[in-house]
Structures are given as C-alpha cells and as structure tokens.
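Two records follow; treat each independently.
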Amino acid sequence: PDTSGNATPLQQNLEKLGGRIGVIAIGVCVVIFIIGVLMDRTDPANPGSPSWLYMILIAVTLAVAAIPEGIPLCVTISLSIGCKDMVTKNVLVRKLAAVETLGSASVICSDKTGTLTEGKMTMVNLYAGGKGFDVEGKGFDPTVGKI
C-alpha cells in the first residue's frame, strides 16, 4: 500500500536523504570503477584476472558499504529523547511519530479538557493583544467568516 500521503515531514526528509546518498554512492562507485580500469588494477590474489572484473567487485562493495544502516537507529533514539522530554512536561504521547509531528507544529489548539481533536474543531473566540474577538466561519474554509 502507498503510505506516502501519511508520511511525516521527518520521514519525507529521511527518504530524500536516502535518495541523495544513493545517487552520490552510485556516482562515486562509477568513478572508482573507471579510474581502477584505466589504471589496470587487478586482484592481488589472482593477478591473471581482468581489471574490470576486480573493479566491479570493488565498486559493488563500496556501494553496499555506503548504505547508512545507523540512520533509523539515530532517528529512533532522537525521537525517544523527545518523548522523554515531553513526558517531563506532562504530555502523553502514544506513538513515537507524534513526537516529531508535535515538534514541527507552531500552533496547537485544544478544547477545555486539553484534548487534541481530529481536525474537527472550529475557533469561536480569540483573545489577542489584550482584546477579545468573536470569530465566525464554516469549518476550515478561510473565505467564509469574519472576526
């Protein structure tokens, strides 16, 4: 199933980073292969083998070594630390991905019980700059309503 629509900004950025690392790794491997063939590098254990065969082995080895296996671990540890910090501030987090999502939010709206709803909430009163305002509107349509 396609889950790209549900990806958090962190997941999207990690996917871009993985793609960039892959392209760079392939580029470096091709350059190493070409240089090795031009310099006629052969396998020290089997000097009679062709240089292109040995350089393919080297290029594939470098490509496999370039895959960053530690990135998911580092991200999980970072999110866990963020979760721990949020718990010290009395925030209940059920899913680790919610830590990243809440960390990228600039405004959080909640009802009087402090519950975050599923995007169904509409603001009716606003207090800013020492003044109170009544807000009217329909759902999330910015073209309908007034202050």
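The next record belongs to a different protein.
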Amino acid sequence: SSSSSSSSSSSSPHQQKVHFHKFMLDVHRQMHLAQTVHGIRGSDAVLHHVLTHILQKGRILCFDEFQVTDVADALLLRRLFTGLVERGAVVVATSNRAPRELYKGGLQRELFVPFVDWLEETLVVVG
C-alpha cells in the first residue's frame, strides 16, 4: 500500500504560499531593512529592493485570506502588486470579500479605490 504524499500542499521552488497578513508584515520589514541596513533611499529604490526579495522566493504568489485593514498597506498595495505583475509574478488569492468590499470604511479609502480598479481590470476575480 502506498502512503499519501503531502506534495500537493507543499510549495514548489517557484511558488510561495503565505497568509496575506504575514506577507505584508514581511514587506514592511523588508522596507525597513532596505533603508536601515542597506542604506537604500527613495521610495522607488526601496520598492525595487522589496520586489526583488519577494520574487527571489518564487514568482507564483498564493495568498490566503487577502484582506486590507491597515492604511499603510492600503496605500502601498497598488505599487506593490503592479510591480509584482510587471515583473512576471502570478498572484492567486483567497478572500472572504469581493474586491469592492476590501478596506471598506477604512481611513483614506478613496486613495485605495484605484487599487481596487486595478485588481478588477488586471486579475481574474472568481466567486
């Protein structure tokens, strides 16, 4: 008899499976390290460093529980996701909310709406 394999739930070398909140914590940590440890200045250069770090781990990004509750995340997401997709990343995410419901009632939500528009125009929304 054969034992069942857990390979279907493990990440391949080209794929990252991560809870979205944990991913964003790592993004903010990498931004901080870029500035303090690597001496990188300027938001474009910092973002480039963060994108390079993310994509070195894998180009297929699978996010569990995609949600936005933090104003800093809300303001960063469009540049982050645009940069990932432009560099060839594939983004797969699960969420309990439709894109239009993300960050509903959040601070400065009007600055987040262009990201929602981008999500709906660029990604395939299922469900």
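Discussion point: DSSP finds four helices and three strands in the chain. How would you locate this feature using only the token line?
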